[in-house]
Design a protein that fits this description.
5-stranded antiparallel sheet, 31 strands, 3 domains, mainly beta, 1 helix, 1% helix, Endonuclease - Pi-scei, Chain A, domain 1, 40% strand, elongated
Length: 446
Amino acid sequence: MITAKAHNTIPAIVLTHKCHDITNNSAEQNVQVVYTDSGDESQSMTLPPNGSINVCALENSVVVFGSGSITTSVGSECDANVDCDSNVQLFLNYDENSGSFGSSAACDGPSLTFQAWSFDIQNISLENTTSIVGKQILNGRFSTTGWQGDAYTNWPGYYAVGASYYGTKLMAIRINNNGFVTEAYTCSTSTPTPTPTNTNTLTPLPSPTPSPTPSSSAPATIYKYIMNPCDEESPNFTAASNSPKTINATYTCTGSDYQEDNYTIISTSTNAYVTWIGDLTICEGGGGGCLLGGTQVEMHDGTFKNIEDLNEGDALMSRDIETAPDSDDYDVLTNWSHSNPKIETGLTQVVKKTGYWKNSIYNFNSGLLRSSKDHMHFIKRGDSYKFIESALVQVGDFLIDKDNNLIEITSAVRTHGNFQVWKIDVESLDMYIANGIVTHNDKPRP
């Protein structure tokens, strides 16, 4: 018999997308910021020292990834970044001599007459040859298409860039055919009459500076990492970045041969690299159903272990649910329902455990259970018991605890950040007890 346990009803938290002014509080170091955009996709960007940006982001989703701190001011509701006027106009030159210059030689090319835009770069005078690498140049004010520097015959990927029409050339940058900056060099300026000036102020013409010193044209430091494809089938490879990345975090890669998947960094590398690391992301569709590290799993003897501490062969408390399919077919499982199944105590065994990194989790009842969006929960909705993914669970559904009580879901909040989660496969019964709640193990996704 299943009995209902009364709980206070708490309204669901509804978050909206609003314009966010984000400022790096440090005058010395870059800071990496992660947020959820108006399309509910995770975005990552690097703000230079004292840099700022205005983006359309989901409330409470803006966080710092790694070290550093930011100041955030929240404004009006928005539907896209353009509603927040967040991109900045830049000016580029182009090669009139059919590829005669490359790398830092772009500083000696034609005047800055081509307009371009960027959401990633908010003040070109605050960028340096390290911070600008990995940022994207767009070909229009309201465009999301990258500047296709390598895509045109006799238009090589090296350009000088500045903040004004016919203005000062601040850097020479290499732009790939998706608009991402892959290399950067400083443009040095000399004049016959040195006069001290504020080097942070841009003017249409080169300003004299005292004792100008030419900058080295050597590219920024390259960090190399071994990348593990999210499909868990393709071979590993080495990719490069001009800034340090995080082991066990997942990123895109910018090479055209690597854009069909995302990749998790598993270690540093000394091998030759084959492409560049792009933005922080997650293994879309990979990982299966996972629970957050620290989730307490009940062992066969009534003791508890954190899910990350489980080992293959561990015996767990389980539940045998009447008529529930013992199937690895995702559709068969999600199409099952029962009006009042008999639930009996049993034991099961861990046969596999795998860890993943995700940039969002679903938090039910303020920490009662926290899972990836595709974790399979055992719930009651209306008159039926069923299995359903986290992303489809609703306030008003019921979870079932270890004593067969119904626990009403009073809040279901998607939280963004960088989370290590764990999936386990248990057999022969597919259920186990997590934080006192009956839940399902991982099943393959279609």
